[in-house]
Specification:
Oligomer: single chain
Strand order of the largest sheet: 8-7-6-3-2-1-22-23
Strand content: 25-35%
Number of helices: 16
Number of strands: 30
Shape: globular
CATH superfamily of the largest domain: Ribonuclease Z/Hydroxyacylglutathione hydrolase-like
Structural class: alpha/beta
CATH architecture of the largest domain: 4-Layer Sandwich
Radius of gyration: 29 Å
Number of domains: 3
């Protein structure tokens, strides 16, 4: 057992380990209870139908708040929402710097302006290959290929050992518009045996064999599809995939077509990329206002909505309610993406709308029109071989991904493989082990403009309302128990059907009247007793008719 006064390097996942998205991790260094901390990433995940009204879910930073005086900085690996989306909501209160690349800094600034966020954070620019010091940590960003520009792994060095935090990555030797993963630097990390290395590694595709296709392969497929299109061709993809946007623009130029953008996210991200010189040499993009003036066979439409978002451009085009853009039979739509789990139904519905109108739909089932930004098993093996880690901690994934990654690491001979989940404290060096420390983790919900805990959110009540509807009964009694006003009743979310030859709402009103007649005046004069009797009777009657218990609220006022 390590001495309590000995320095140790620990890893604490606060989100993203045991789930997809909401990535946030802390690295601590120093003696027990006297550590300095750096934080890596601060992301979100998205609400689903089980959380009505909740747009975003964020990791609860309570552990960091408890150690706020010793938190040195936040470092962002890249600017996908699941890695940086919570920064402007969670980090301003810490008043500590945020280290990131220029593209990520520009994305944060655009998000702040777009969402009218008053809070701001202090940005410090970092450059791959140029280490910087934060207290006892030396941190170096290392360029990796991913599906957004300026993605980085982080080499975190202390006197006891090193951690290579991969972020999201793949070994793509021919990405588009960005440099490839820095293979040489990764190899040098493995050649340095002065300090042991722990690999904190992306597990998203650990279940998939082989190697992830290159972005240039997708670009070649899209170029062939665009060249062969007889009429209009529309493509939808993740707006952040600048490499994909560049491939589409190059293919359009080669085919003698012009690119029209539709969707705020595409305009925002291409503006940022253009200002940073990432779109050099490409013809300018046109706004959607130019769409109708272009010949049918001279346009490439690039639009948002690859995940089925109801108000995004491709959804509105599919429904036929876009104010400017329309597609006709014989035109083509390419979904250069795949559906994030939970979005499948919405995406399929949009595709069916196009198909019903005679518009050709091309998806990943028809060819290589999309590729992942994460490593498959052969790429993981290659990274192990280059970096030669003594410790592997699988992160970024659900239980099945993490377990597959751990098994692969053991098979490849990594000496120590740690099974971690959100809230675990893992000592990396010296003497790797999972510590019994209690680290509070959880979720925060963004509900409109309100950031709250699950308990504060009212989601449980919304679920009840969505399942059983709501009945409100209100009446006024006097001190003698006489009803002097009402009863008034409002029903929401209950079926409008007839039972026993009378409307459903009339059956409920009859139940209320029966209770008022059957209770003696003395008992009716007690507001609490009357309220309880009406609540029980109404709920029971509806359950007998419907087979479900509604939410019932009774107001009894006494004058």
């Amino acid at each position: 057992m390590a001495n309590t006064d000995q320095n140790e390097l620990v890893f604490v996942p606060l989100g993203g380990v045991g789930e997809i998205g909401m990535n946030m991790a802390a690295y601590g260094f120093g003696p027990k209870n006297r550590k300095k901390w750096i934080v890596v990433d601060c992301g979100v995940t998205f609400g689903d139908p089980s959380l009505p009204g909740i747009e975003l879910i964020m990791p609860d930073p309570e552990f960091l708040e408890e150690n706020a005086d010793d938190v040195l900085a936040l470092i962002l690996t890249h600017s996908h929402e699941d890695h940086y989306g919570a920064v402007l909501d969670l980090w301003p209160g810490f008043e500590k710097p945020v280290y990131c690349t220029p593209f990520t800094a520009a994305m944060l600034a655009a998000k702040r302006a777009s969402d009218s966020i008053n809070e701001n954070v202090a940005i410090v620019s970092m450059t791959p290959g140029r280490p910087f010091t934060l207290g006892p940590f030396t941190v170096e960003a290392i360029n990796v290929a991913h599906s957004i520009p300026e993605s980085n792994a982080l080499l975190i060095t202390t006197t006891e050992g090193r951690a290579l935090h991969t972020g999201d990555w793949k070994l793509d030797p021919t990405p588009i518009g960005v440099p490839p993963t820095d293979f040489a630097r990764l190899q040098k990390i493995g050649e340095d045996t002065s300090l042991p290395l722990a690999l904190i590694c992306d597990s998203t595709n650990a279940l998939k064999e082989g190697t992830s296709p290159s972005e240039s392969e997708v670009g070649a497929t899209l170029a062939a599809i665009i060249a062969a299109a007889p009429y209009r061709i529309a493509l939808t993809t993740f707006a952040s995939n600048i490499g994909r946007v560049i491939s589409i623009a190059r293919a359009a130029e080669k085919a003698g077509r012009q690119v029209v953008l539709s969707g705020r996210a595409l305009h925002r991200i291409t503006t940022i990329a253009g200002e940073l010189g990432m779109l050099a040499g490409l013809p300018p993009f046109l706004d959607q206002d130019a769409y109708r003036s272009l010949p049918r066979d001279k346009v490439v439409l690039l639009c948002t909505g690859s995940q089925g978002e109801a108000r995004a451009a491709v959804s509105r085009i599919a429904r036929g309610d876009h104010p400017i853009i329309e597609l006709n039979a014989g035109d083509r739509v390419v979904f250069s993406s795949w559906a994030i789990p939970g979005n499948e139904r919405e995406v399929i519905d949009i595709q069916n709308l196009f198909i019903d109108r005679g518009i050709d739909v091309i998806t990943q089932r028809d060819g290589l029109v999309h590729t992942t930004g994460h490593p498959r098993r052969e790429e993981l093996k290659q990274l192990y071989a280059w970096t030669k880690p003594q410790v592997l901690v699988p992160v970024h994934g659900e239980a099945s991904h993490l377990e597959a990654h751990a098994k692969l690491g053991r098979e490849q001979g990594i000496p120590t493989v740690v099974h971690a989940r959100n809230g675990d404290m893992v000592r990396l060096f010296p003497e790797t082990e999972r510590l019994p420390a209690e680290v509070r983790v959880g979720e925060l919900y963004l509900d409109g403009l309100v950031l709250c805990t699950p308990e504060e959110s009212g989601v449980k009540g919304r679920r009840r309302l969505s399942f059983g509807g709501h009945i409100v009964v209100s009446l006024v009694i006097n001190r003698n128990g006489d009803v002097v006003a009402g009863p008034e009743m409002v029903m929401e979310g209950l079926p409008i059907v007839e039972t026993d030859d009378e409307p459903f709402d009339q059956a409920v009103k009859k139940t209320v009247s029966n209770i008022l007649r059957s209770l003696p005046a003395k008992r009716r004069a007690d507001p609490d007793l009357l309220q309880t009797a009406l609540h029980k009777a109404v709920r029971g009657e509806v359950n007998s008719l419907w087979g479900k218990k509604p939410n019932v609220t009774v107001f009894v006022h006494r004058v």
